[in-house]
Amino acid sequence: MNMEAVRRQSLIHIGTNIAITAVGFLSTFYFAHVLGPSILGAYFLFLAYFGLFNLIVDGGLGNAAAKRMSEGKDQEEFYSAAAVLRLILLAVSLVIMFLFRPYLVDLNASDLFWWLVIALIVNLPFGIAAGGNYGLGKAGVVQGSNLANNLARIILQVIFVFFGLQIAGLAGGFIAGLAIGFLFNYRYLEARFRMFTRAHLKSLFTFSFWIFLAMSGILILTNIDVVLIGYFMGNSEVGVYRVALQLASLGVFVALALEYVLFPRFSGWNEEGSYEIIGTALSRAYTYSLVLAVPFCVGGWLLGDKLLYYFYGEAFTTGTLALMVLLPLYVIYVFQYLQMMTLNSLDHPKDSFWITSVIVIVNIVLNVLLIPVLGITGAAVATLIAILISSVLGYFVLGKYIPMKFERKSILHIIAASGIMALIVGGMRFLFPVENLVYLIVLVILGSVVYGVLLLRIDRDIRDELKAMATQVGIFWPEFL
């Protein structure tokens, strides 16, 4: 088990995710203040529809190709077969879009239909090239392309919005970012197109069919709340909800980074029958994901209303209650996300599909029942319940294939450090109410420092691992830690 390689790639992913997240949040602050919730909501609906239609274009083939290529056999044949199939699926997706165009009222009203068509076309080569690099084990290149994509998108969107392009500027910047991400991937792509056989297609279909169904459920799960809020309410409520969702999701970027690193490695270890190693690595991934997710949830409960007010504007404070529900959702999401990734890497996409099918049905029913009554808070409650059910089901199903472990001692240390941080920050806010942005930032920094120092002092395993990472990249490590 090459832990140095895992550690190195984890650092790359976490570092790029920090950069993407930081710049992304700053740009959203700007868009929220300049454009307001209605235009921002229209853009979020555009992203939701892009995710749903791109699901058809991908068809599960991205993960299927990565899985088969990571096994080390006929890599270029699988790469080529997946690329041709995705091109065919793009044509199918566009036909479906044009057939259903009269029913896409939100897109047509915002003049976003043709922007969506262009985005799907440009995303095809980006997805093919990224899938090729990922399947060859170049997770760092894929993450680098995501960084280039997101930074270019954000910078161009800010420029376009500054010059008054509004929704067209947001959509145009999104498409330009995809093009730049493709160029980055292509620069490092070593896979070349090669003739493939029916056996390669069959192998891809065997895996991609269940991946496609599972991904369908996941994308419906992550986008249906936005679509239904737009249906029952309006673009403004979509904007408020997605801003709260974005803020709450900040705590899970470690888990998202680890997925890129661990999927191909879990796949390789599965071929070797190293299930004990997979179980150990998964338990460590839980811990490091919770290092950020738990304190962010606690801090959000204490300061969430003020974060929405000062960073996004008064119009977005109506999402405070929804934010309070979404924060613990993303703590639970850590387990659900890593478990579904592990099931797929172990070649059990069918299990992922059945789990996802259950929670999609639950989520849709609850959204339809709760949004008309509770508004965007109802959507948050529906998604929280669905993710919780998925995590429980995933735990028991995954336990059939690998030993399920938790680093209980480290998790308790994380909870304890978060609790002490809450007492200090909560006490400060109670004694000295937050009345300006500077004091809010001071409280955030204070909470981060208190939590970080406490955790590193009481948990030797986490301290030693982070120290090794810091030393590896030449970051100074204070002696008192």
Helical fraction equals over 70%
- Unreliable spans: none
What's the overall average pLDDT, rounded? 83
What letter string, H or E per element, gives the SSE order?
HHHHHHHHHHHHHHHHH
- Percent in strands: under 5%
Instruction: Quickly count the domains.
Output: 1
- Derived structural class: mainly alpha
Shape: globular
Largest beta-sheet characterization: none
How many distinct beta strands?
0
Q: Can you characterise this structure?
A:
There is one protein chain. The chain has 481 residues and is mostly helical. It has one domain (3-406). The protein is 84% helix and 0% strand. Helix 1 packs parallel to helix 3, helix 3 (75-99) packs antiparallel against helix 5 and helix 11 packs antiparallel against helix 12 (320-345). The longest helix has 56 residues, at 3-58. The radius of gyration is 22 Å and the shape is globular. The mean pLDDT is 83.
Give a topology summary.
Blueprint (H helix, E strand, L loop, with lengths): L2 H56 L2 H10 L4 H25 L5 H5 L3 H23 L3 H24 L4 H22 L9 H35 L2 H14 L4 H20 L2 H38 L7 H26 L3 H26 L1 H23 L9 H24 L5 H22 L1 H13 L9
Helix pairs in contact: 1-3, 1-5, 1-6, 1-8, 1-9, 1-10, 2-3, 2-5, 2-8, 3-5, 5-6, 5-7, 6-7, 8-9, 8-13, 8-14, 9-12, 10-11, 10-12, 11-12, 11-15, 11-16, 12-14, 13-14, 15-16
